[in-house]
Every structure is written in C-alpha cells, then in structure tokens.
Specification:
Helix content is 43%, strand content 17%. It contains 13 helices and 12 strands. Helix 1 packs antiparallel against helix 2 and helix 11 packs across helix 12. The structure holds nicotinamide-adenine-dinucleotide.
Length: 424
Amino acid sequence: MTEPPSVHRASRANPLDDALHQLGEAVATLGYDEGTLQLLSAPRREISVAVPLRRDDGTIEVLNGYRVQHNYSRGPAKGGVRFSPDVSLDEVRALAMWMTWKCALMDLPYGGAKGGVTIDPSRYSARELERVVRRYTSEISPIIGPERDIPAPDIGTDAQTMAWMMDTYSATRGYTVAGVVTGKPVILGGSLGRASATSRGVAHVALAALAYKGMKPERTTAAVQGYGKVGRGAAEFLAEAGIRVVAVSDQFAAIHSEAGIDFAALGAHVDATGTVRGFRGAQEIDRDQLLTLPVDLLVPAAVEGVITDANAGDIAARIIVEGANGPTTVAADAILRDRGVLVVPDILANAGGVIVSYFEWAQANQTYRWPLALVEERLKERMLAAWEDVVKAADSHGRTLRQAAMLTAVERVTQAHESRGLHP
Ligand code: NAD
C-alpha cells in the first residue's frame, strides 16, 4: 500500500479560531450581547477518552478519542466521527460548532456534535479498527443515544463503522437501537440514498450556483479536491450534469485531463488501488496545484484549511462549493469576497448528508423504510429551498452567502435558547 503523507491538511492553523471568528462576526451583526456570544461559543458537553487497543501482534497501544456536543438547544446533538491522524480536541470542537449551524440552517431538529479518534486507519487491520470502534463507542456511550447524540460517518469512517457502533451500543442496552447512529448499512436500517446524499447535495447547490451566475453546465469546467465519500460522488454527479470535470485529487496525488476525466475508468482504478495516483487516463499534477487550475468551479471536498491567504489570490474559479467542512480560512474568505468569487459555504453546500441522516433517524423512529425516490426528492427540495433562502438573505443585505447562512443559523439557535430560558 502507498505510504500516506503524514499531514493531510494544507495549513496547521487551528480551525477553532476560524469557527469562533465566524460566530463572533454573526453575533456582532445580530447585535447580541457578550453573554449570548459566550453561550454559543462554549461546547455544552465534551469528553476525551483513552482508547486502548490490543494490536494483532499482542502489543497494547492507547489512542485518543473525543466527542464534543457543541449545542443541543434545538434537539439531540448530531455529527460525524472522524478517524484521522490530524484529529485534535480543537478540530473536533470546530467541527461540532459547524454542525450546530448546519442543522439550524437546514431547520433540522438537531444540535451539533462531532467525534474523532487520532489514528491513521490505513496503518491498522480491519480487525484492529473494529476493536478501536467498539472501545471508542463504549467509552462515549454514556453521552450518545437516539435522543441525546447521534453519530454518523466522516473522514476515515464509513457504514461498517456505524454498524459496529450500533452493535456495541445495542449490546450494552440488550436490544437493537437502530436510531443511535446514521449512515448505517441499508441491511441494518440505513436509509436508501444516504451514502450518496452529501455528494448529491453538493451537486444540487453547485448547479443552482451556476444558474445564479448565468453559467451553463455544458460550458463549465470543474476541479474536485478529495476523492472520498463526498468528492467522488460529487465529481461523478457534476460530470453527469454535463460539467467537464478536469481534475480530482486525494491525499496521495492530483490528476488532470483537459478533455474531462472518465469516471467509470477512474472509479475502477481507485477501487483496485485505493488512490487516483497511477490512473492512465490523466496526467499527474502537483497536489496543491489543483486548487489554482483555470476552471470555473472548484469543489474542495477533503479537509479543512486548504484555501488560505497564501493561495486564495491565485484561485481562478468563479464559484467555490465547499464539500468539505471548513476548507476556507477566514483570511482566505475575505480575499475571495474582494475578488468576487462566489463561495457556497460548507454549512449549506455539504448539508445533504445530515439531511438524509435525519431521514434515516426518522425512518428508524417510524420503523418504516422510505423509497429511494422519496428520499432523493425531499433531499433536493430541502437543499434548493435553503439555497434560495440564503441567496435571498445575502442579496437583500449585500452579504456573502456564508455571512447570510451564519446569521440565519445563529439567530435560530439563539431563539431556541431564548424560548427555552436558562435552567435554573
Ligand atoms: P473520506 O475519508 O471518505 O475522504 C476524504 C478524501 O480526502 C480522501 O480521498 C483523502 O485521500 C482526501 N484527502 C485528504 N487530505 C487531502 C489533501 N490534502 N488533498 C487532497 N485530498 C486529500 O471523507 P469524506 O466523508 O469524503 O469527508 C470529506 C470532507 O467532507 C470532510 O471535511 C468532512 O467533514 C466533510 N463532510 C462529509 C460528510 C459525509 O457525509 N461523509 C458530510 C458533510 C461533510
């Protein structure tokens, strides 16, 4: 297997600084007081756990795990679990806060949470990973549950991870608790359409953004950073819509083909090798060069902090659709705004996953499976309705889409706090 680079993120800046800055800006615009800012800044509950692992060779290793519930004023906390060597408590805090705003913006009855284990999954066997997942789940089980906090997949985790989490949680209860996680395999009550939901949502808003800018898909070129659960599907859906996707990348390499990438062939190559590197239908380019290629549409769908003040001035795309969480730093955001680049923010662009997670949780609670067509229709409706609302709010007040989305989200969470009051 190819050796993974040790640092995935382009910048080691702390994403929590960016998340807090965005919140501070929204609170100031809304005219809220310092107490409200403090209330919304502090995670309501967080837990750091040691995750001891017996490796296949019999040695013991102790990993660090986290679960942060940023806010649950609007309902149970909701958010993914990340397995990555870059996971830190501050990263998890930032991601949990972004989940609060995303769920509020999409008007889902959830707060925000995130979890993670500091681990490079590519260096462990499947049996070792199962033990890590089970021990991590058991350590955080006092604070999760279908009415408390519902994990889902994120970087380095998948439907199998969710199956192990659900099984571990259920074993301690003595019965099957399907609603404790979302993103499960369909055989265990996972929703039809969940696996592709984030990517589909990215494509829905990307197409809406093109129409907003008066651009036609068949005359548009795109580059997609990250070829995982979000990036791969997003690239394929954009290509299906007629966009010429000329470059994609993963943590190992970036590849480029001016004629457009053949995704059936690339998919087969990635399934066989685990990476886009070595694909014969395109030329390998420098991994970070992908961000500044002369394309119309850029979809960062890998990790946070990749578009920074060092490269924002060189980005040629007119539209950026944030498939990843937090890919654009605050400093880069200001540069892109001044340059007139339309940035569709993460809390809107990649919300398709949590929308269908909500549908999955609703199906678990109803014990009634929805057909795929219904899931996809409702996903599209919600994505496009949120897009329209955000664009209207941005245009009527001369704000960026991120500012407008943050204001709506922060206002909704604050209203929930106000109507609940403080206990005691
Ligand atoms: P994943 O682990 O399935 O894929 C991540 C991809 O990014 C991999 O192809 C990896 O090789 C690549 N990558 C890592 N570092 C890179 C770099 N520096 N340059 C280029 N590629 C790099 O993870 P995912 O679930 O697709 O998540 C990607 C992003 O989308 C994350 O920010 C995540 O929080 C966000 N997100 C995921 C979901 C979901 O449903 N999975 C929902 C909303 C947001």
